[in-house]
Amino acid sequence: MKSFKLGFHPDTVTINTLIKGLYLNGKVREALHFHDDALFKNHQVDKAIALLTKIKDQGIEPDMFTCTILVDGLCKNGRLQDAQQVYQDLLINGYHLDARMYTVMLNGLCKEGLFDEAIAAIVIVTAIFCFCSLHTLQLQSVSIDPVSIL
């Protein structure tokens, strides 16, 4: 949004009005993305998780963008273990993690000083991307378990 780039910092009423408008116009995912991001920036991690749970209970599955916001927010708010659990759950549930998600998780590990875990994760991610790009091997046949690394 251009107004944010110009240094305008909206108050709670403005943010809530924007989110309500997005919901009323059927743009649920956009509203969720905006709302989650705003909550994490205000260090309201538990409210963001509660909202995500409520949305999931209504049958709306979060996309990778939303999940990445969640993991990033958890990492930035000192909740690396929760971020790792979300990350592992995504892998277990068959989500196809993207480069942004891996970057967020690696950043979280490094900020906590867990460099050995970050290096191991880089090795796993590199192996996964290489195998996937070859199109001759399927991820299921790779003997590396990406869930166990974190």
What does this structure look like?
The protein has 150 residues and is mostly helical. It is globular and about 45 Å long. About 7% of the residues have low confidence.
What would the keywords be for this entry?
150 residues; 0% strand; single chain
Helix/strand-derived category reads: mainly alpha
Q: What average pLDDT do the residues reach?
A: 75
User: How far is the N terminus from the C terminus?
Assistant: 35 Å
**What is the share of helical residues?**
over 70%
Poorly predicted sequence stretches spanning 5 or more consecutive residues: 135-144
Major pleated sheet: none
Radius of gyration equals: 17 Å
Order of helices and strands: HHHHHHHHH
Which SSEs are present, and which pair or pack?
Blueprint: H1 2-5, H2 12-24, H3 28-41, H4 45-57, H5 64-76, H6 80-92, H7 99-111, H8 115-134, H9 146-149
